[in-house]
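Saturday, quiet lab. Running sequence design on the structure tokens for the scaffold JK sent over.
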């Protein structure tokens, strides 16, 4: 209660005016002008607002400091709504969302073709195969063509 009565003293009239302006800003819901919204919605603008709030918490009346925190939050919210960053963050898909949609679209049922291929004879792998193949490849008629491995 002491901080509230200190606010009405003559040497703290500037803080009282600032409290009144903050309350009017919060209640009336004024739209932030676009040039100011662009400044506030940048990284530098957010840092400056944070520094101002910290300064008010350190050197001013606690009522003004808490009120400045609410005003800063509301100013940042209104500025992001004005510049459109708020909408982009809400509706612009992230890479994780895109990949989850792609994996959902790429889930196919087990097809007849996959079943037939799975039932086919096993393939003989070249290199270190455990079983020897039962066939020997033959070279067809070359029709007067030179073999690839010919050194002439």
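Result came back. Writing it out in full:
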């Amino acid at each position: 209660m002491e901080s509230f009565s200190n606010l009405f003293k003559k040497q703290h009239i500037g803080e009282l005016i600032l409290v009144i302006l903050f309350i009017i800003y919060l209640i009336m819901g004024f739209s932030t002008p676009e040039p100011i919204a662009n400044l506030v919605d940048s990284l530098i603008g957010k840092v400056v607002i944070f520094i101002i709030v910290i300064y008010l918490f350190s050197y001013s009346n606690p009522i003004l400091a808490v009120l400045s925190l609410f005003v800063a939050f509301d100013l940042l919210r209104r500025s992001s709504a004005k510049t459109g960053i708020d909408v982009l963050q809400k509706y612009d898909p992230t890479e994780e969302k895109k990949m989850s949609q792609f994996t959902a679209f790429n889930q196919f049922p087990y097809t007849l073709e996959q079943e037939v291929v799975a039932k086919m004879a096993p393939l003989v792998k070249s290199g270190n195969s455990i079983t020897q193949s039962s066939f020997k490849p033959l070279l067809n008629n070359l029709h007067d063509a030179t073999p690839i491995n010919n050194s002439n």
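Notes for JK: The chain has a mean pLDDT of 81. The chain is about 60% helix and 0% strand. Ask whether to fix the surface positions before the next round.
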